[in-house]
Amino acid sequence: MEILTVNDHEKSYHEEFPQHLFKERAAVKSHPHTQQLADIIADYMKPLGITKQQDNHLTALKEGAPVIIGGQQAGLFISPLYTIHKIISIIVLAREQSHQLNRPVIPVFWIAGEDHDFSEVNHAYLYDDSQVRLNKVKVATKQQVETSVSDFMLSDEEKHSTVHEFMSKLKETERTRQIQQLLSELPNAWTDQVKQLIHELFKESGLLLIDSNDPAFRRLEKETFKYMLTHHEAIHAAFIAGQKKSVAGGQQQMIETNSNVHLFMKYDNQRQLLNFTAGKFVLNKSDVTFTRDELLRLIDTEPELFSNNVVTRPVMQELMFNTLCFIGGPSEIKYWNELADVFAYLDRPLPILIPRMRITYINRRIQKLLEQYELNISAILTGGMQHQQEQFLADEANKALLVKVDALEQQLTTVFSEITELAETKQVQVIAGSNLEHHLKQLDYFRKAYQRELRQKNEIVLRHFKEIELHLNPRGGLQERTWHPLQLINDTDLCIFTKISDELVYTTGQVVIEL
């Protein structure tokens, strides 16, 4: 395994995030509830079997150690690959900062179990090398998920069918049977599946996990929910002001919200946005209203009914954890920056915001194809394979033939223009125009037929190009946005991600790992 970095930013990671930023942030006073938080995480993880390194991190967390944190929705069996890369980024940076600050820095992954958009997470893509295509695998359920995904549970039959469908799309390797066993032993609860898989992959790294929708965690958040509800007008005003500043500074607006309370409430088995209008709090899907006192009592007695939206979720995370830095994707970093005034209003400084590492894997087959066709991997990662394919076909085409076709088209256009000018009646002009259109269509048909013939002639090369594209730029984006981590494990090693996290150093450049 060889690790390379391409497409480096103009500034290196250490120039962009100098160490004094981490030292200053580490000096921020710990939250008073930190020991209670550590106990909640320990209880949440206890069924998994806490490793020695995780136990050490829980002890350090109780003592006020800062965390490096990031999170993601719970995708099908941890889909897609960039979820793993967030976790790797958290682990690598926590290790580096532990060394730099000479104190424990704890890696924490936040499973966004409160999210209710099941259509975003209920599927995955697996690459079929025999057919050179991507197969979409979808969870085998007809259940409608309108509340948080943490509340969603598959039946035994649905879980079995989903695992069977997923495994049927993986080619047989030495690891396939172990993966099937791992998936078959998963619990039926959606986020618990992701929790167990992540733990299995990263337990020796000391990674701590929490589900944002965990009931005990919700109880810890009670007073913060009350504060957010009571001060919702000021929080909303700060959000709007901060967003305007961000947009005026040239950043694209990232957050679109139709709430002025920025909280969700579970009601009638649906996760519904709260809005404040005409002196009442109104649920967006049922028009049910509440007074402020009624909601405060509900938060006090049933905090698990409440959750954050995109504006208050980052704030809640910050008010729960002693965060050294937050690691997120490019869009996440941008929308956190729109919340600067909200953090200022709450008298809590924004954490250091660091983009997760971007990682692409290349097996020997793809390496050989890149070398065979003298293709630049950096260009493919940023621009895809379309240009290379077009250039190849242009080089292989019979240029003299195509020049003659173009010349004939120009000649026909000129001659029929002259015929039209000489025509004595409108009817003759129409006939001439129709004839020209017919000839041009025939030439267009010839060109397309020739291109089909050219593609058939170079079918093997184009298949190779498609292989490269589906590995490095599938669905028009980076590999990590489509590929599934279990496919990589199936093709390489059950410990591939811990090995990578052990060897990586943090970088904001594009990492390429040659397997």
From TrEMBL:
This is Putative cysteine ligase BshC. GO terms for molecular function: ligase activity. Belongs to the BshC family. It comes from Macrococcus equipercicus. Residues 359-504 form the Bacillithiol biosynthesis BshC C-terminal coiled-coil domain. NCBIfam families: thiol_BshC. Its EC number is 6.-.-.-. The lineage of its organism: Bacteria, Bacillati, Bacillota, Bacilli, Bacillales. The keyword Transferase does not apply.
